[in-house]
Amino acid sequence: MEITRLVLPGPSPTARDAVLLCARLARLYEDGARAVECDAGAVTAPGLGTVEVLARLRLTARGRPLRVTGAGPALRALLDLVGLAGLLAESKEREPPFGVRE
C-alpha cells in the first residue's frame, strides 16, 4: 500500500494549524491517497494544541488509515494519556506493525 506523508509543524501545532492540516488531509484522500502518515518529527513541545490537531485529523480521516510517525517521547506519552496512542505507527509490544494483519 502506498503511503502519503503529511508533515506536522513544530515545535507545537495549534488549533489554527488544525484547520489547514485537516483541509490538506481531506484533499489527499480525495486525490486517491489510501493511507496517510503524519510526520511529527518537528513536534518538540507537544501540548493540548497538538492533541487537538491529531484528534481532528483522526476525525477527518473517517476510518481511513492514518498513523503518526517520528513522535518523540513527550508526544507518545501525551497521546497515551488522552487515548490516542493508537495513532502511533510505532508498534506497541505484541501488536503487529501498521498495515500487517495477524
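the 2nd protein, sequnce then structure:
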Amino acid sequence: MRREDVAPLLFRAADRLPEPDLADAAWAEGVAVRRRRRRSILIGLIAAVVVALITVIGIGISSGKSADVVPPTEPPTNPPDYIAPAGQIAGLDFWLAPPPGSERFLDRLETPLGDRLELPEKVRPLAKHLLDQVAAVVLERNGGVYRPLLLGSDSSWSIAEVQLVSVAGHAPLSPGAVSPDGRVVAFPQPGQLVTVDASTAEVNHYALPGQDLRSVSWLENEQHILVSGPDIAYRVLVGEGGDGEKPVVLVRGSPDPEAVTAPFRMQNGSMERYQVTGDWAEDSALVLPVQSWVGQTFSSEGAAARLFIAHKLTQVPTKWSQPQVVAAISTLRALPSRLLVLGEPLTGPPRTPSGPADQAFVREPGCCAVLGWYDEGTVLLQVRGWVLAWSLDSGRVRRVTELAVDGLALGPDLRS
C-alpha cells in the first residue's frame, strides 16, 4: 500500500463511526472538574480543623503548667475621674475624704434612698404591701417600743407588724440586719432573735440564752445569722439546715459585739475568716495605726471594709480630734488595699467650688461607720448627717443621701 492510499481509507472508516456529541462530553468533563474542586475544598477544611484542634490541645497542655490567668496585653488604665492618693499610711495608699460641711455639694449617687432619708408620713402595713427586696431599714420609736420601717428597692415604704424593745439601752437595729438576698431582716432582742420576711410578712422568734444581744451578721448562705453581745456570740439557724443540725450554736465572741461578722472580721493586728466550726482563722496580718475599731466589717467579692479611729497620723495632722479611717482590705492577693481618711474641717469659713458650704463640725468618735457596699468596688459609709460612697477604683467620694433618721441598715443592692 502506498502512503497516499492511507488518507482515503481513514476517511471512509470515519464515515462508518457514530458522530460524537461534544456538548455532552463537555458537560461531563465540567461535572468531574467541579467534583474534584469540592473534594479539594473539603479536604482543606478538614485539615484546618485538625490543625486548630491540635493548637487548642497544645495551649491547654501548656497552660496547665503555667498560671491560670493570662496577663492582659495592655496595662489597666485609671477611670476618667481618677484622683491620685494623698500618700501612704502603713504602706497603703490613702485618700482624703471631703471635709465636713461639704457633703451637700458632692456629686450624688442615685439610689432608692432618695436625696434625703427620713421617716415617711404615710406607710402601708407590710402584710398589705410586700417587698421583693429591702433597700434600707429604720426604726420608728413610740415610747419604749420600736417598729421597723422597711424601704423597698422601688422606694416604697412598709411597716412590719412587730414590736421591738431596746437592748442594754441600745436601739435594736444592727447595720448587718438585712440578709444577702435583701429579703429578710433580723433584729437582736433580749434573749432572742427576731426576723421579718419582707416578701411574706412572716415574723419568727428564735430563743437565745443571752440577754445582752446587740449585733447581727448574716452568713453568706442566708441560712445562718451570727448574733452577738459583749464576749458572747451565737450562730442561729434560720433556714432549713442539715440533718441533725443544732438550731443554736455557741461561737467565739468578742468584747466588741460588732466585731463578730462573717465571712471576714477585722481585729487589731489581723483580718480573720469565719470557719464553719464557729471560729475564726487569720487570713492576713494588718499593720495599721488602730486605736479602736468602730462598727461592723462588711465584705464584697474581693475586699472587706471597716472603720477605725487612728492614733495621731503624721500624714494627716489634726488639731481637735483623732482621724477616723475607712480601711478597705483586699481579700485577693492580686488587688491592693486602700484607706480613706476622714479629716477635720478646713480652717476659715467653709466653702466649696459652688459657694459657701454647710456649717463645719468635728467628726467625733463614733459618728461614722461602714454600712455596706454599693457594688464590688464602692464602699458605703455613714458620717454625721450623711451616707457617702467611696469608689476604690477612682478614689472619688460621692454623696448618697442626707440622713434625718437615727439608725440605719442598708440592703445588699442599692443600684437603681
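The helical segments are 3-16, 22-64. The radius of gyration is 35 Å.
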